[in-house]
């Protein structure tokens, strides 16, 4: 009887493990391949070689780009090189990426930038919020942009017990923001178990100097976050659940769920067309290739345009896709004046005509 019980328990454990493995592969879209969709006049941006994970474009066409992310479990082509913030002026005929100088006193050696967001104050001061992972922790760095000498003045470092595993951020004021925590845990082993077991413990936090609180929860991995042009709705990408959540923003900064748009890809960062309200999403068609990097089977890239997300029938268009031969692991796509700038987690950046 004892041996029978051991065999039964082993059988149950094996069945549960197989079920979890299958579910994990499904969340990563492990079998998905995409047909190529090309755009005219595309060129790789010189000087960006180790990622362009997030992009935020000011109304005047200045684009901020975070580069050099080192993230647990993901490839890095320069693991010992500090991260950087680049600037591109998209009004130029052939815009180039210029590294922004960061003021003295800031710890550049451990700079590991992730999501970014800009806020333009009433006096036209430009603030740049940067999610940072020094020594694999999570902080938010607040900078002031000085255009005259292409520099960032570091104003302060924000830490909080609710900002545990920050992925992306959207600024609400000169010192307030919403942020996504892509995992409940910050230790890599526990992060992996959280994904493997399918725990929906990820959340969204509102931060201001006066108040910090959880405003949304129940995500498998809350990733990109942004706001509608009328500032009434917050959009949240759940990368492991393949969808975009629409949340209504209230006067007390709380959020309520409006709808969920289900997609067939791993949605990373979200950018908004300020004129049309369209959502542009950098996506990973096959997350298995992203997490288990193989130079013979490269992670693909995919860009989606989502129109009329608040309607009963949003229109989703695949604008660009590549098998990794040109661009690996797309994470963001932002538009300006008929041009599309596509960033990646750890690879290059691509600039195309639409």
From TrEMBL:
GO BP term, pick one: response to toxic substance
Gene3D superfamilies: TolB, C-terminal domain
Requisite cofactors: Ca(2+)
Membrane topology, from the record: Peripheral membrane protein
Localization terms from the record: Membrane
A single GO molecular function term of this UniProt record: metal ion binding
PTM info: Glycosylated.
Keyword Kinase: no
EC number: 3.1.1.2
Manner of cofactor binding, per the entry note: Binds 2 calcium ions per subunit.
Reactions that this protein is recorded to catalyse: a phenyl acetate + H2O = a phenol + acetate + H(+); An aryl dialkyl phosphate + H2O = dialkyl phosphate + an aryl alcohol
Positions of Ca(2+) 1 binding: 53, 116, 167-168, 223, 268-269
Disulfide-bonded cysteines: 42-352
Active site per UniProt: 114
Signal peptide interval: 1-18
UniProt xrefs under InterPro entries: 6-blade_b-propeller_TolB-like, Arylesterase, Paraoxonase2, Serum_paraoxonase/arylesterase
GO CC entries: extracellular region; membrane
Residues annotated for Ca(2+) 2 binding in this entry: 54
Enzyme class: hydrolase
Residues modified by glycosylation: 269, 323
Main location as per UniProt: membrane
Function summary: The absence of paraoxonase activity in turkey and chicken blood and in turkey liver indicates that PON2, if expressed, does not hydrolyze paraoxon.
Family under the similarity heading: Belongs to the paraoxonase family.
Designated name of the protein: Paraoxonase
Naturally occurring in which organism (per UniProt): Hirundo rustica rustica
């Amino acid at each position: 009887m004892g041996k029978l019980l051991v065999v039964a328990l082993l059988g149950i454990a094996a069945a549960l493990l197989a079920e979890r493995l299958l579910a994990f592969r499904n969340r990563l879209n492990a079998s998905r391949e995409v047909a190529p969709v090309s755009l005219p006049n595309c060129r790789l941006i010189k000087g960006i070689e180790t990622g362009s994970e997030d992009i935020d474009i000011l109304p005047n066409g200045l684009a901020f780009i975070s580069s050099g992310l080192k993230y647990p479990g993901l490839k890095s082509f320069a693991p010992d090189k500090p991260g950087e913030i680049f600037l591109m002026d998209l009004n130029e005929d052939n815009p180039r990426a210029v590294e922004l100088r960061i003021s003295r006193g800031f710890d550049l050696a451990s700079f590991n930038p992730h999501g970014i967001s800009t806020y333009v104050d009433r006096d036209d001061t430009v603030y740049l919020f940067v999610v940072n992972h020094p020594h694999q922790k999570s902080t938010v760095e607040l900078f002031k942009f000085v255009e005259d000498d292409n520099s960032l003045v570091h104003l302060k470092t924000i830490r909080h017990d609710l900002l545990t595993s920050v992925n992306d951020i959207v600024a609400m004021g000169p010192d307030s923001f919403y942020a996504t925590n892509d995992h409940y845990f910050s230790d890599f082993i526990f992060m992996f178990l959280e994904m493997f077991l399918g725990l929906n413990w990820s959340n969204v936090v509102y931060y201001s100097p006066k108040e910090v609180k959880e405003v949304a929860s129940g995500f498998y991995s809350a990733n990109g976050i942004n706001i509608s042009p009328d500032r009434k709705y917050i959009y949240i990408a759940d990368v492991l659940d393949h969808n975009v959540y629409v949340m209504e923003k209230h006067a007390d900064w709380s959020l309520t769920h409006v709808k969920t748009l289900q997609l067939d890809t791993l949605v990373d960062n979200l950018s908004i067309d300020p004129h049309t309200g369209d959502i542009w999403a950098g996506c990973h068609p096959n997350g298995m290739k992203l997490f288990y990097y193989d130079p013979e089977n490269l992670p693909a890239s995919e860009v989606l345009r989502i129109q009329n997300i608040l309607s009963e029938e949003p229109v989703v268009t695949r604008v660009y896709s590549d098998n990794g031969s040109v661009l690996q692991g797309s994470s963001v796509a932002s538009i300006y004046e008929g041009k599309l700038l596509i960033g990646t987690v750890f690879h290059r950046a691509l600039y195309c005509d639409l």
